[in-house]
Amino acid sequence: MISVMQKLGWFFRLEWKRYAIAIPLLTIAGILEIIPPMLVGRSIDAIQLNDMTWEKITVTLLQLAGITIGVYIISYIWIYKLFGGSFVVERMLRSRLMRHFLKMTPTFYEKNRTGDLMARATNDLQAVSMTAGFGILTLLDSTLWMATLLVTMTVLVSWKLTLAAILPLPIMAILVSIYGKWIHKRFTEAQDAFGEMNDGVLETVSGIRVIRAFTQERAAEKQFADVTQNVLHKNLAVVRIDALFEPTIKVLVGVSYLIGLGYGAYLVFHNELTIGALVAFNVYLGMLIWPMFAVGELINIMQRGNASLDRVYETLGYKPDVPEPERENTEPVERPGRIEFRNVTFRYPSSSADNLTDVSFVLEPGQTLGIAGRTGSGKSTLIKQLLREYPPGQGSITISGVPIERIDMDRLKSWYGYVPQEQFLFSRTVKSNILFGSSDATDNELDHALAMSAFKKILRFCRTGWKRWSARKA
């Protein structure tokens, strides 16, 4: 529990105003909720002593109504502030993950499955969000609220009865701590399995044409069924431990009730406690049920959040293979000039042999260089050296005499017009896809790009073909 709070310390410091409002108001609301049982107990004692009047009843009812309205208003504010924070931390971490993904080179995506990355950006962040919202609520209710109730029961009712009624609490604390350790381990395994399932779905959808072409539908179904069965098995392992929390707490709360009623009746019989005080005590004992449940929920949520936060921070902690140069280490290059490769040797991180060996050439402005070779000879690899997608190998690559490692990454890539071998279209309009690299381009620039790429000719051809086909159908 302390571990996950330390890991989220940066967020609590950033949003301290939100929690500075929510926590005191939550405390005030809890104190106000303690007053009604006291008023009810005193009213019962007054009735027993024939000392109750309409004036006292009216005052008591007005007090109860005022407390109810006050608790309602205060609760609305602290709920808005506290649970609003849970959405804020989820959005912040998701934004950090997206920025991190955009900085990563192909090596990162070769080492991490896409489905697992999606799981970390969705399910894991939801678990972290629960920790920053509901987790803080259970933390306060299982500590401060429980302590307030116990002090009230001890001071205002009977310390003997309170001491007897809380005897099951240490047993509950030990059992819940054991359950929490099991939850952390099994929830991590379940999240890993979920990420593997996500990755399988993405691969199946992306390769559906190949699967159908080779009539592998049944094999894909069986493979997916095995993966989902593994996810089910891992989540059921979590549920089996999760299901232990409530019965354990219910049994121990029931024992506390039995002690409270039995020993309370004994104290009333010996005139050490009034009936009104016993009624108030049982109301407080009923109010104590949620803090007892909150202990279990606290351990459960914190362990889930801790496991998920470890997975998220593991991703965020991955250092880029090709870091951007520090501002003070960059050299200004106004316009790209001569491109020179000098004795460049490169090997992919996953390769056992050099993919480029001692490559040297000079390309002056205005010149064209054609690169030919069989598949796998290194043509794309050579171009990727200019894009800085992988860590540099041996030798040097310079533009206008400046090593590309010392040129600002955004400026460097703004000079290139690159068409990758793997085509991809975003689920947007054709115009949006064309303007993807330059969203602020004018209509004239768009028309120029369409003309230069012969795209207008293609559109014209498609329209002509469509008209001819429609005429034949008619």
TrEMBL record:
Location in the cell: Cell membrane
Name of the protein: Multidrug resistance ABC transporter ATP-binding/permease protein YheI
Domain ABC transmembrane type-1 as annotated: residue spans: 20-304
Domain of life: Bacteria
Single GO MF annotation: ATP binding
Membrane topology: Multi-pass membrane protein
Transmembrane segments: 21-40, 60-89, 127-151, 157-179, 249-269, 275-295
Keywords annotated in UniProt: ATP-binding, Membrane, Nucleotide-binding, Transmembrane, Transmembrane helix
Chief location category: membrane
InterPro entries attached to this UniProt entry: ABC1_TM_dom, ABC1_TM_sf, ABC_transporter-like_ATP-bd, P-loop_NTPase, Type_1_exporter
Any Pfam family matching the protein: ABC_tran
Keyword NADP: no
